[in-house]
User: What shape does this take?
Amino acid sequence: MLLIIGASNKDWRKLLCLTIPRSRHTILIRPIRTTATRKWADVYTVVTWDQRNCGKSYSKDQNDIVLSRSLFMEDGKELTEFLLNYLSKDKLTILGHSWGSLYGANLVLEYPEYYDRFIGVGQVIDMDMNEAALKEAATEWANGDAEGMQMVERLTPEAMTLEHALLRNKILERYGYGMMRDGADYNLITTIMFNPYYSLSDWIGFLQSDMSVYLDYFLSDEFKSFSLLGRYDYQIPFYNVNGDEDYQANSILARDYFDKVNAPSKELIIMEHTTHGLLESKSENFSEILHYLVENDSN
Assistant: This one.
C-alpha cells in the first residue's frame, strides 16, 4: 500500500520514499508518521510504503510466502520503477528509519542508478551486533540492580525472538532509553483516532493479523544477510541522522560505520538527548534537518 502526499505534479521538486517498520505494527506507526511526514510535504512529494504483508498491505493469503532478501529487494526495485514512471522522475531519495534504514541502504547499494541520495535515520548496521551491543550496555546500566540484571541475562541477542524484543524494550524503558521516552511534539491520540487513511476495518484487520511470518524471518539467515558490515562504497550521497541516546539502533555502531563509508558526499548529524523515537519526539527539529540536507546537497 502506498500513500503519496505533496504538491501537484507540476510543482514536485523532490521525492522521498520512506520505508516504514516491519510487522503488523506498521498500522500503528503509519498514522503517527503521517503527521511527521506532512511537515515535509509542503516542499517534497512524500511516498510512504507499507511493505509486503505489513499494515494495509497485510493479507492472510500472503502468510504462506517464504520471506527472503531477494524477495524484499525485488519488491523495492519494482516499487522504485513504478514510482519513477508514475511520477515522471529520474531519481528518488530514500529516507528510511530503523529497519527502513537497513533496507534502504541495501537498495541504494544494489540499485544506485535509481536514487539521488540516501538518508538513514536511527541507522541499523547489523542486527546481531546491534543486539549484542545493547546487552553489553544494559549490563552496565543494571549494575547494582538485581532485578534489572536478571532481565538483562534473559536477553538473547543471537536470536531475535518476540520475547527478546519485548524484554529489550522493557530494559530500555527501565533505564531511560525507551523509544518514546520524550513523548511526541504532536498529539498521538488525536493523530491515530482522526487519521483519514484508516477505517474501522483496518483496525480490525490489525488485531486479526498474524505476526508469525515475520517472527520466523527475524530468526533466519535471510534477515541477517541485510547486514551492512564490509559494505562501505556508495555511489550516491550518504546521510545519517541519529539520536545520541539511541540504543535500539545503536548510534555508536552507526557512527563507526559512517566513518568507513565512501560516498560522493556524506554527513552525520547527531541529535542530542534523543532516543530512537526522534521522528515523533522531535519532528520539527528533524524536519529542519531534512530540509538542510536536501537543499545543501542540491547546491
